[in-house]
Design brief:
rod-shaped; alpha+beta; SH3 type barrels; Type Iii Antifreeze Protein Isoform Hplc 12; 3-stranded mixed β-sheet; 231 residues; 5 helices
């Protein structure tokens, strides 16, 4: 195929065409064309298939010279030229971090920007909505300028072991509030163990906010006595 295309170009042009090498890096669609590599040519030809997405195809000076000679181009390498070719891909914009985030740190909206990435990368559990990142905690240390995976994020810990917490029981008829101490870390919606400061008893509670837990209503009847006097 290359020789047939080269013969057509030679017949059309008659003499060698003065040509110059284009950029040393380029992105192509499905095929690598002669016109992708050289400026100043009258015709065109398909040289090869484009590399697979995420891979590169490198053409060094000897290969470029052979191509030029095959297609009757007046071009000679000055020394060390090479062209790195990638496949052009559809891109999508995804949120990334502007700075390093430590494990357990809560990500703020100001820590987030956007970056275009190949669509194939964003298709695999990558978080594409910044609203799903702001306010979440980092499961591990996260680097800037890198797409985030869903597994990188956790609900922020708003209760920490050893901290004082406000314990609330609301069964619809009575509201009791007392103080206690968290026995474990917890995020909003998680069940934790807390010790009632008055009764010194350990009870289960649901984290409802920073420094706040609530006794699960279905168990209220068995735990009222553990809460102590209402505040």
């Amino acid at each position: 195929m290359l020789r047939a295309s080269a013969l057509v170009l030679l017949l059309l042009c008659g003499t060698a065409q003065a040509a110059s090498l284009k950029a040393t890096t380029l992105a192509v669609d499905e095929k690598v064309l002669l016109s992708d590599l050289f400026d100043g040519i009258a015709g065109d030809a398909v040289l090869s298939a484009a590399p697979m997405p995420g891979r590169t195809l490198t053409m060094a000076a000897p290969q470029l010279l052979r191509i030029a000679q095959t297609y009757g181009l007046d071009w000679r390498p000055a020394g060390g030229e090479r062209v790195v070719i990638t496949r052009r891909e559809e891109e999508v914009s995804v949120p990334v971090l502007t700075r390093r985030i430590a494990a357990g740190e809560v990500i703020q909206a100001s820590d987030i920007t956007t970056k275009p990435v190949p669509a194939r990368i964003a298709a695999h559990n990558t978080v594409t909505d910044a609203a799903l990142i702001a306010g979440r905690g980092a499961r591990r240390a996260l680097q800037p300028d890198t797409p985030l995976q869903r597994a990188d994020l956790v609900a922020p810990q708003v209760i920490h072991r050893g901290e004082s917490v406000s314990i609330t029981l609301d069964d619809g008829q009575m509201l009791l509030v007392t103080q206690g101490e968290a026995q474990m870390d917890g995020a909003v919606g998680e069940r934790v163990r807390v010790v009632n400061s008055s009764s010194k008893k350990s009870i289960d509670a649901i984290v409802t906010g920073t420094g706040q837990v609530a006794v699960d209503p279905p168990r209220a009847a068995t735990q009222k006595s553990d809460l102590g006097p209402a505040s």
